Amino acid sequence: MRQLTDLTLKVWRQSGAESPGYFETHKVETVSDEASFLEMLDQLNERLISEGKEAIVFDHDCREGICGTCSLMINGRAHGPQRATTTCQLHMRTFNSGDEIVIEPWRAAAFPIIKDLMVDRSSFDRIVEAGGFITAPTGGAPDANLILVPKPVADAAMDSAACIGCGACVAACPNGAANLFTGAKISHLNVLPQGQSERYKRAEAMVMAMDDQFGSCTNHGECSAACPKEISLDVIATMNSDFRKSKSKNRKALSRN
Amino acid sequence: MTATLISKVPAGDLRDKWDNYKADAKLVNPNNKRKFKVIVVGTGLAGASAAATLAELGYQVDAFTFHDSPRRAHSIAAQGGINAAKNYQGDGDSINRLFIDTIKGGDFRSRESNVHRLAQVSVDIIDQMVAQGVPFAREYGGMLDNRSFGGAQVSRTFYARGQTGQQLLLGAYQQLSRQIGLGGVRLFNRTELVDVVVIDGRCSGIVVRDLLTGEITSHAAHAVVMATGGYGNVFFLSTNAMNCNVTAAWRAHRRGAMFANPCFTQIHPTCIPQSDESQSKLTLMSESLRNDGRVWVPKNPDDSRPAEQIPESERDYYLERLYPSYGNLAPRDISSRAAKRLVDKGHGVGPLKNGVNLDFSAAIARLGRKTVEERYGNLFQMYERIAGEDPYSTPMRIYPATHYTMGGLWVDYELGTTLPGLYAAGEANFSDHGANRLGASALMQGLADGYFVLPYTISNYLAPLLNKPVPSTDHPAFAQVENEARERFKTYLAVQGTRSPDWFHRELGKIIWDYCGMERTQQGLEKALSELPALYGEFKKDLRVTGTGESVNQTLEKAGRVDDFFQLGMLMCRDALDRQESCGAHFRSEYQTEDGEAMRDDKNFCHVSAYNWTGDPMAAELNKEPLVYETAHLATRSYK
Lengths: 257, 640
Fold this sequence. Notes:
Chain A is α+β, with helices and mostly antiparallel strands. Chain A is built from eight helices and seven strands.
């Protein structure tokens, strides 16, 4: 175990959605390199409270990289410098004594700031509500082994389903686009046999809900580079392909009604 | 005066009880369902599945979560899998065997009828989740794959890599989202329950706090479901998410719902050991790793060589030695205590000598690195992130940590609490796991309650209430509870002491861990019961909450949760003191066999302890529900 000393933090503070924000500088004299990044912030908050100041607000929960609650742009990078790692899994051993660390909230028009480092990501939920599901009301399912899913298909679905909905893809995108997030859900459900009935309806509805709220994709690839679960850009291709087909397939389906 | 606990177990042979219940239960006509309003608090596996299913049936549902999205609930962190008695492997599994394994795993402290129903509906869960598109692991032919888990000798665990909880929760979340999109469910996110409202002896609604504005509001319904998770965070350090808390269940308890078996808290054997004082939580490494990992410590406590240099003959594979038939897959309580004993004797490994080795070198040699990577890749990666060591080349270091709480709100066969109209589902109820839960059974229970039990039992409660309007939030009972809630949060802000809520939480956690953790003694528990009220007194006098109550204030949220943890902690220690036996995860040092195994006392303690709120958790009124075993035979557990 090693102690890091003399860190300078520049933290974004903003008292509410409509208030002007600013950077606040804090010195961290010493912190263990075993501490996680958020534990370092916990310690800073403890100090702020003991000084009678308001603690820095940031979203976090499971601290094991799966719930997708934590966020933070750290030195301009979503979830910080380590590849395939959420902020809560980032440890101080990644940093050095004397470092200056700039901490900001997710930057995206579709994720308005609530307070300090906390943003509102419910725009993601709206996309899922539009069609990110398989209609399977409770009670009527057939025996699970009646639906055969070849292993490579199950694996591919799982690769896409690993998305934790943290929003790093949107924060990293110069356009604030949500194509990786939306593409991941569409790719998860659209490759499975269970997902075929609603395949094109789903693609169209989700893309429309996405376009209503987010910017447009111009294939920078920053999303996939920032993704803590390393979701591949392929999911965007799958989404685009199904969306394009949906324009004719859904019309045909309508004409049959 | 103690109340009589009516468990409402239906008549008939154990195998027929659930069918008999469903045949007799009162139904609500499809056109009448929309006249009923149900509130569901919590959107984890139990809450999301209940809310979605009730809305599909046609009830008006309001769902509440303190998270920003229902998908964040802590069910998401479950790794290893979900049990179901499908017998797809043809290895001798059956509903009856899953039932017996669960009863035995719980050390004969759970209710037979509930456990049997759980085993019955387990098979429907897998069908349901597959239909929703959960990408469970598959064989090459396309059929579902299984793995084995602690406490079972069959492979009945379905899994999606090491992210089974995530995939199941996303399935339930998607089903809930569909209902939100259709208007069947109204979602209130970033909204925390602060109290429960009772009118004329029925639970009539809840009072909540908007975490963004601090506004306190009332919501009324014909019935309320608590699916608010467990209370493992009373220990401060646990594998629970940071925001998990007991407040919803505790506030319900204070309004008349009995709290059962609070001392039954599970310590999970495979977590990453604490690395320093400032640590905020512990991380679990799935029990499924014990399928292929071998647990050992150096025979010589002073052995300072790196693990891979210690020869076979100088390693103690203690689980294989002590429990040859179950080996590394011995149940959680037994594996945890075995690790603790060896670490206490100085055999621990790692810089702080606070762990044991979980070694994959044999599995890698046998199966190849690629197979091991496929099975556990994400877990290995997670370990590497946290511990800074590569588990492919050196053993993982693991140690037990608080993980799950079997105790919770007392419920009858219908999952109804002792407060009419209030139901509890998932980890929030005391439920089906007795004194110790088997691995991969929490996901099963959460989904069983939400998908396949509550939708039937709630209609039985609602049917006679037809054409009774939703209680009005103008009723003075709502105003009174709202005012109390406002006062409570004002009080935390007004103390202006010197210590943060986290400081108190950490101190509280130390007391609970030291005296009410893996091993408990009369002396220790008495000490805890003298120290807790003193620390709680300090909390009320010396708490410091900065900021205001009118915008996001996580310090204030935490203060309310720690307050409730204090009261729960006292009840836990009291319950542990009262239960003068060792059973499952509750290990009283005074009651053990010569070779250190738990010694149950079926003559005096074969019951559920359910407590009634009296205003003082130290003086809660104890009620007992006797446990009767008609099908399973009371026997000493043996995994040797």
